[in-house]
Amino acid sequence: MPRTQAGLAEALGVDVDTLQGWESGRRPLANMRAGALLGLCRRLPALGADATLVQWLDAAMDADRIIAAGLGEDVGGPHPLAGWVHTRDTAHMVAWALDGTAPSALAGRLPRPRRGPVVAAPRLALVDRAAFFDHLRSATEDAARQGETGALLHRQALYLASYDRAPDAAAWTAHTLHRRRDVFARRGWSPHWAEARSTATALARLGDPQPLLDFIDRALADDDTAEAANLNYWALWLGALPVPQPDDAFMRDRDLSGWDPVTLLRGLTRGLHLAPGYVDLYAHSLWALLTAFPWLPQASGQLAGLLRERTSQLLDEVPLSARARRELARVHYVFDHNR
After folding, report:
1. Which tens digit of pLDDT belongs to each residue from 124-147?
2. Is 225 exposed, middle or buried (0-12, 13-18, 19+ CB in 10 A)?
3. CA 94 to chain centre
4. What is the pTM of this model?
């Protein structure tokens, strides 16, 4: 936005100190009245702000509430990780504050740092980061004692705790995740399906892909309810399902309603992950999405070329399980023959 702080503050009808407080986090946007916040979100693009960045304010405020709860602040109501199923955007905003890695979707969009009291990134201080991870570990253990009532909090707190790569923390996370390996023994859909998926993906991120491969074979493939749950979860995680979800019940919708298949295809294609385990989950999910919506190649437009390129690269250069290779080859073939 080509404006000085003083110029922008004047255009928004606030003083410079208020604007600086928003930018530094000293005055969280989430504390604004709903009407004033809505007006700000509408006004910023009209003044030249990148509309994509403005759209990220929702995820940023969700992340702020999660972090505030982790630092002992009263955010009102249930714990933010127990009140709704968070999305990739929210998780990436939290991760940005924890390790300084900006969400890939914001690459090239962030403004250059300028003079004045403006932080370059929403990075937590070391002491706050340690306190936040301690809180997540405590919340994980407390939620485990609550049984089904604490299932959502347990799953989401444990997943975020896996971002702590300190040796002692990583050992705790791995031990806690492996204690839940019993959930992988269940075949097909079960009330613990979402926990099993989250646990397996977290272990893959820590360098152990085998639980995720086992999950795909035992609790996902060839089970219609589980296949639907996987696509529904991806739809929420990647933004194809725009409606916030208070719990995991939405995953059981076998009609696959309420979300756009092309948007999900775009998210899966752009996010194809090369790491062991992850690539298998992406491959299976792309195959399942194409099976559920066979018209996608005709509706994908320029996205088809990117998908052909990425699947070809994976098939040629990356070690794959037999299932992943077979499913990726099928996806590549279908899109290649629908030019």
Report:
1. 889 999 999 999 999 999 998 898
2. middle
3. 10
4. 0.87
